[in-house]
Every structure is written in C-alpha cells, then in structure tokens.
Amino acid sequence: MSSRVFLTGGAGYIGSHTCLELLISGYDVTIFDNFSNSHIEAVKRVEAIAGKKVALIKGDIRYHEKVAQALRESKSQAVIHFAGLKAVGESVENPLVYFDNNLAGSLSLLQAMREVGLKTLIFSSSATVYGEPQYLPIDEKHPLSVTNPYGRTKLMIEDILRDISSSDEDWSIGILRYFNPVGAHDSGRIGENPIGVPNNLVPYITQVMAGRLEKLRIWGNDYPTPDGTGVRDYIHVMDLARGHVKALEQISDHRCLALNLGTGIGYSVLDIVNTFADVCGQAVPFDMYPRRAGDIATCYADPKRAKDLLGWTAERDLKQMCSDHWRWQQRNPNGYL
Question: What is the maximum span of the chain, computed from C-alpha positions, in angstroms?
C-alpha cells in the first residue's frame, strides 16, 4: 500500500473528494493542479475537514520536467491522474485543445513517472469509452468505441496504458471507468463547482432550484425507456472517492486492471427531477426539447468486477445523491467564490 499519493487535478470535483478520502484513510497527499477548472478554496476546505495538510503545487502536466521535479520532491509512491478537460460539447468544438491537454498531458505525466522510477498509477477514465451500448448492463468486456473527441482521448490514454503495461511488468495500473458522478461531501463544504452554465444534469438542476437558471432543458422524451427520457447510472462522488482508495490498496496485485465504478442502477432524467423535487419541497421547472445528436437512450454499469476484486460497492442511494448536492448548492450559492 502506498502512503504518499500524487494527485494530478486534485483540486477538481472528483479529485478534491478523493483527496479527502485519502487523508482520512491515513495517506499523505500532494496535489498538482493548474487551476484551469478548479479552485484553491477546495483544497483549503479539504484540509479543514480532514484536519491534515496537503502539499500543493501549481503546475501544468504538459511540462514534464516540472512534473518530474514535483514527483521527486513529494517522494510519492503512486499517482492518481484526474487532470483533464471533460466537456463533450467543448471537445467537439475544440478537439485540438482536448488532444493537447488530455493526451499530450498524460504522455508528459507518464514520461515524468518513468524518469523518476514511479510505476503505480490510477487513471480517471470514463464510461464514454463504451460508446453506444451493445448490451446492458455494461461490463468491462463490452467493446470499446467512442463518439466524440473527449471520449477518444480517454480511450487513447487507456490504450497507451495497456501498451506500457505489456512492455514493462513493473507497472501497476488501475483504469477506473466512471459513470455519472453527482453529490457532494455531507458537510456541504466541498462539491461540484462548474464554470459557466453546467454541462451536466444535476448541477444544472441545483442552479435552477437556486434561482441562478430559469428552467431545466430536457433533451428528448421519446426514447425507448419507461418514461421516454434518457437513463443513466449516477454514482455519489464519495462512493467514487472510496473506490479510488480501494483501487490503490489492491493495485499492486495487478499489472493493468480496468474497472467500472457505478451503481448498476439506471435512473431516468425524470427520476432525477422528481427526486430533487422531493428533496427541495418544490417542483423543478423544465421544458422538453428534441433529442440531441449523439445522445443514447440507456447506459448503466455492471459493477460486479469492482466488488469481486476490490471489495467495493456504491452505498449511497439517489435521494442521498440529490440531497447532498442540494446542500452544497444552498451553502455555496456561488461555488467557491
């Protein structure tokens, strides 16, 4: 088990919650972040909740000399790689930006790790690498394909990691494929802090309920699903964070291991809307729009492999996901500002 962990993008949404879980579990953490889509206040609050300091280095993973220096100085024994851009629509509009940041950045990180002799890595991947589901629930044997540049960067990085693992048996690599992270720490002090109009459903709903946005837009109500709206697997961010700690504990037994992190339950957009209405005590105003190009009807995980190999399962239900996300929004109406 590695006691010193290096988090790229550790001040972001998933990174900050994982940092907290690592600190509480007894790890020493170094965060390396360029703060392009994160906030230093998240790190300060993580330290306050955990009662423990984090080593914080401002830097960009595309500059491998600086990454190598930071790895040496931190004496880290494992890396969890969160740093990356993540908006599908933006990736379609600016694919070169995504290939530069996500792909070139990951290559730079891997070169720095090799330079310092560090070969334990947990990679933040995504269920987008499965493309259009060919069967449900989706297990790790499902064929891999992508429909947008963001997903392509994730799949290309996965391919690179598999090639590295094949070439050098000293590497221990965990590839964690997230489904749809939502929620926040139950203190309400850290949570998702999207810049501009949110790209994802749950932060959009919370901003509507807080009066920052007028109405929710629901794209498509004619899918072959129980209520016509799209169905997805939503997972509480603290369950996701715990999955990283479990992976870190077990990864030395594996050369390259891909795992789904999800609940195995599909919730529709209207399921989410209705649960939020219950939590908030008022209806969520919304308008229906035609389907968006590229959106799929249904996607949810088979999380059995993570249970079998890590002893991990998601514990929090949809109501807790919504209530924790809403608590964060209420207590931080302008995010970390």
Answer: 56
> Rg of the Cα trace of the chain?
19
Q: What DSSP string describes 205-233?
A: HHHHHTTSSS-EEEE-S-SSSTTSS-EE-
Q: CB under 8 Å to 122, separation ≥6 — which residues?
A: 78, 79, 80, 81, 173, 174, 176, 244, 247, 248, 251
The verdict on pTM exceeding 0.85 is yes
CA proximity to 110, closest of 57, 168, 150: 168
Q: Which of 13, 98, 150, 204 is catalytic?
A: 150
How far apart are the C-alpha atoms of 168 and 142, rounded to whole Å? 26
* Cis amide linkage into residue 333, ω under 30° from 0: no
State CA 84 to chain mean position distance. 10
177: left (phi over 0), alpha (psi -120 to 50) or beta: beta
User: In the structure, what pLDDT confidence band is assigned to residue 292 with cuts at 50, 70 and 90?
Assistant: confident
pLDDT in tens, 14-34: 999 999 999 999 999 999 999
Told to judge if 150 belongs to the known catalytic residues of this protein, a careful annotator would answer: yes
Cβ atoms of residues 85 and 37 within 8 Å: yes
